[in-house]
Amino acid sequence: MKILTMTSLLAAAFLSPLAASAQSVSGHVNFTGLEGAPLPPNLLSTLSFSARTLPDGTVSGEVQIKSRYSGLFAHGKVVCMVVHENQAWLAGVITQSDDEHNVGAAFLIGLADNGEGMNAAPDVRTVFAIATLASTGPGFLDYTCWILSDPANIPYLFPIWESAWDLPFTENDGGNVQIQP
After folding, report:
1. In terms of Cα–Cα distance, which of 90, 170, 176, 164 is closest to 130?
2. For residue range 121-149, what is the model confidence (pLDDT) as tens digits?
3. CA 163 from chain center: how many Å?
């Protein structure tokens, strides 16, 4: 629980200027591909998410993923979020999983809302990344939230890309991403 308390304090400190804008991210997406490799439709994966900035600057939210490809089920608490134009990044901790090694692990997901209607491009997402505490250490989530607090810090989290805004996004097969900047 100590990591969540520290993370909440850091998120509040770094994201408090965003609180007035009442940022939020919500939606549900379906996808059958994995890293660009198409999968049979019966291997549908689903991702549901909801997060918002509270008046005190902290972030509240949840994510849930069910992959029929890997068999993964995970539910997590969002502890920090950054919204930049039509993109959002959510980070947090896995609170429930069918794999006990994932409980307590950090997660990171990027999402983009490409608008509504027939002429809008499909909404997109990055891979749902999970980093176990055993491989990252107890300060990893705090570090991730610090990086997400300022887009200029992103290269420290993703050293092979110049900016998280340039990370590869993948089209969803269905669903809708709603981002309120």
Report:
1. 90
2. 888 887 677 766 555 566 777 777 777 77
3. 16
Dihedral through CA 87, CA 115, CA 28, CA 91, nearest 10?
A: 10
Q: What does the domain layout of the chain look like in residue ranges?
A: 2-33+43-180
pLDDT tens for residues 38-97?
556 567 889 999 999 999 989 999 999 998 877 889 999 999 998 888 988 898 899 999
d(CA 74, CA 13): 28
Q: What is the mean pLDDT of the chain?
A: 76
Write the CA distances from 45 to 8, 101, 161, integer angstroms: 30, 20, 26
Beta pairing class for 87-97 and 129-131: unpaired
Residue 2 belongs to what H/E stretch?
A: helix 2-15
Question: Do the beta carbons of residue 47 and residue 109 sit within 8 Å?
Answer: yes
The tokens describing 123, both together, are 């909404």
DSSP 88: E
116: CB partners within 8 A, 6+ apart: none
